[in-house]
Amino acid sequence: MEEPPLSLIFCQIINPVLSSADSVSILLAILFVMVLVFLSALYSGSENAFFSLSKAQLEELQEIPGTTAFAINYLLRYPKKLLATILIANTFVNIAIVLVMTYLFSTIFNFAAYPILSFLIEVVFVTFLIVLFGEVIPKIYSFKHNVKVSRFVAVPVYGSYKLFQPLVYLLVRSTGIIDKRITKKGHILSVDELTHAIDITSEKNAPRQEKSILKGVVNFGNTNVKQIMRQRPDIVAMDMSLNFKQLMLQIVDSGYSRVPVFENNLDNIKGILFTKDLLPHINEKADFNWQGLLRKPFFVPESKKIDDLLKEFQSKRMHLAIVVDEFGGTEGLVSMEDIIEEIFGEIQDEFDEDEHVYTKINDHTFVFEGKMIINDACKYMDIDPGVFDEIRSEAETLGGMLLELNSHLPKMGQEIIYKNFIFKIESVDKRKIMRIKVSFEPQPDVQA
Q1: Contact 192/386 with Cβ under 8 angstroms?
Q2: CA nearest 232: which of 425, 392, 423, 400?
Q3: Which of 21, 44, 165, 221 is least surrounded by CB atoms within 10 angstroms?
Q4: Which of 134, 177, 113, 169 is nearest to 34 (CA)?
């Protein structure tokens, strides 16, 4: 049996008997739907407009005289109430759209013989109408013109809040109870999960530096001082027994603005010498008592988190700390610059010499010094530092990690393999690994 043509179906579903009263009702219903869709667009757009305002834009809106500025200030002071008002009002408007459209279609059409067609026209069309004109278009427009839209919708939304205030109160209170329960039982994202989220959500053409900064921020609170400090063998420090002329020669040679000063050995740090404190005394004789210029040293344990150290640097107005081990011995040195570099990468000023801390042969082959910090090497290779967690133990340098892995001092030219990494020893002395060539095969991304 052949299906009837669409034109015949259309003629069959049209209500053949429409009185003048029905025509007026249809016209009023269409106008009412247009008003309701406009209200839906207004509430949907207001959400994007309000919550995308910058600090400068808020200051601009606050200067507007009259009730608009008052409404904006009040609504943004209570964001949960604002969001609840928008949700409640939008829900009522959308329900009204569905009811009016149902009445409109039942008046114009008779779907008794075609229930599927009734579904397509009533449900699909109404959904399309609400989503496109009541949600998508207004949200896109309001995001681009948030100041203009905020000024336009501030008073209507504030009026809606006053109208639905009892419902808003109930919704905010109920969601507050749920928030507390979720906070108690909620899942805390790990650093690895956040880092992975940055990888999969960043745009493909986003600069690598931007992703690196985001990862630095994520890992910031999980990094301790030992991971970023300057190791003890690399500390430039002055002996208290030096006379003033010898001191000045060594200060000029070091190039540092702050240097630790020790007595007898590096484990006995007596103070920090600021080179700017020497400027008024540069013409003094060799017997000048420069030791009186020392400032009190600041000691921190190697396990201290760098976010806590940054706060202490800010509160104490310091830029340098001596890192000590559990026995009080000097383990290393950490500066404000070392902490900032954890987020923004290597920082060099106009007086820094261009040090080749590593050599990049290609994207998957690098040459590092044995004293290179593991975390820094991973940054240069653009890999996750956690890949070496199983073998690094307490080691913080590449050389130390390979000694842990190999259990003895390797010979020059020896290759040490771990997972997809090949470490070739290029230089070694009697006590430590001097230079390492690292090559690796990139691992394919694991799809969830």
Answers
A1: yes
A2: 400
A3: 21
A4: 134
Q: Is residue 448 part of a domain?
A: no
Q: How far apart are CA 259 and CA 297, in angstroms?
A: 10
Regions of the chain short of the pLDDT cut 70: 1-19, 65, 110-115, 117-118, 178-222, 343-357, 443-448
State pLDDT tens for residues 68-109. Answer: 878 888 888 888 888 899 999 999 999 999 898 888 877 777
Query: Is residue 391 within 8 Å of residue 404, measured between CB atoms?
Result: yes
Asked whether residue 110 falls in the same domain as residue 144, the answer is: yes
CA distances (Å), 390 to each of 305, 387, 402, 419, 446, in order?
21, 8, 12, 11, 20
- Domain range for 264: 225-344
Helix or strand run (H / E) with residue 232 = none
* pTM as predicted: 0.43
- Nearest to residue 331, comparing CAs of 277, 276, 384, 400? 400
Total number of domains in the chain? 4
Are the C-beta atoms of 248 and 290 separated by less than 8 Å?
no
CATH of the domain at 268: 3.10.580.10
Between CA 21 and CA 247 the distance in angstroms is 104
Strand ranges of the sheet holding 230-231, from the earlier edge strand across to the other edge: 230-231, 330-335, 320-324, 299-301
pLDDT, tens only, 31-60: 998 999 999 999 988 888 888 877 777 777
Residue 385 maps to which CATH number? 3.30.465.10
Same domain, 120 and 29: yes
Q: Is residue 350 part of a domain?
A: no
